[in-house]
Amino acid sequence: MAIKTIGSKKSNKFFKAMLARSREQKNPLNVTFEITRRCNFYCPYCYRVGGFRPRQELNIKEITAILRQMADAGVLCVAFTGGEPFAREDIFDILECANRCGFKFNLMTNGYFIDENAADRLKDVNINKVDISFNFLSPAAFDKFSGVKGSFVKVKNAIEILSKKNIPVALKATGMTLNKNELVALSRYARNLRVPFYLDAEVSVCHSGCGDFSRKHSLDNAEVSFLMKAVYPEMFRPGAAVMRIKSRARSGRMFSCAAGRDMFSVNPYGEMNFCVQIDYPRYNILAEGGIKSCWERIKNEINRLNTTKDYICVNCDIIKYCTHCCPGRAFAETGSFNSCSEYLRNMALERKREKEIPRDQ
Q1: Separation of first and last alpha carbons in the chain
Q2: Residue pLDDT, tens place only, 255-282
Q3: Rounded to whole angstroms, what are the CA distances from 167 to 78, 173, 289?
Q4: In the chain, how long is the greatest CA-to-CA distance?
Q5: Which of residues 212, 243, 274 is at a domain's end?
Q6: Is residue 271 part of a domain?
Q7: Does residue 221 contact residue 347 with C-beta atoms inside 8 Å?
């Protein structure tokens, strides 16, 4: 969720039209590309603190080949992420290739390596937006969380450099027990810079660890509700447009997101997956027929899962209180898509209890 969106009404209308065409033709439009899992930070909610074991990552020739195949398949938007993308010495070669392919592309980074020179090079390659993780406004807390002394100053400087150079930048924070008292101040800092602020209220369970951190530091429903109202007050004023989230689980579809409809992800080893949270099904793009072939297999696998007859969410007694119903979260927690995430179920139970409390109490 963000304070504001980036892009004009004209461009938003164009991308809506492209999305409609993509879904009609069943072609991919959006891709998240993990170009590395290396990082200079040691954030405790990352897979690096779990069972992560490095593998041989794609080289620039292989990444270039995949990007060209993506363009040929009709992909329009690419988000480059990691790990830390700047951990790759060839990061600008990758971005220049993306620019030549005509993609609208973003970069998700911790910001540590962005200085004046790097910002100028980002502008030269026509970067659409730079997303920077910014979880703390306290320098000491920031440095402790990243595990790198002086990281707060480096990242804050990067944000302000990009902002001054009119390079679109957005700040992203994950709501946790560790930073819940700083999130409102973070959103105000972003407003003062006139940049978007995205708050993810859920600590994701990554595919190779960090489950203990998620269980210990995730916010409960009351904390999430309070923070949303405090960070985004304009959404809760009288007369404001209400954003309604409807569960599709009753329809029997396991996946109601964009995975397999217009979106997929690629990991640093050239494997196509549903999304970055789901390290599955790992179709090897360069060894198994290319982007188009693997995309057809992704769609078939999503369709197979969507026809699961005993889908656990369909007859759940608290489904109307579950606003997420994410099989990816369930897979990360349990290893099965057809299971219930303990975190999401607890959040739904909290909402149920709140609804059942008489209004005069």
Answers
A1: 31
A2: 988 899 999 999 999 999 999 888 899 9
A3: 17, 20, 37
A4: 66
A5: 243
A6: no
A7: yes
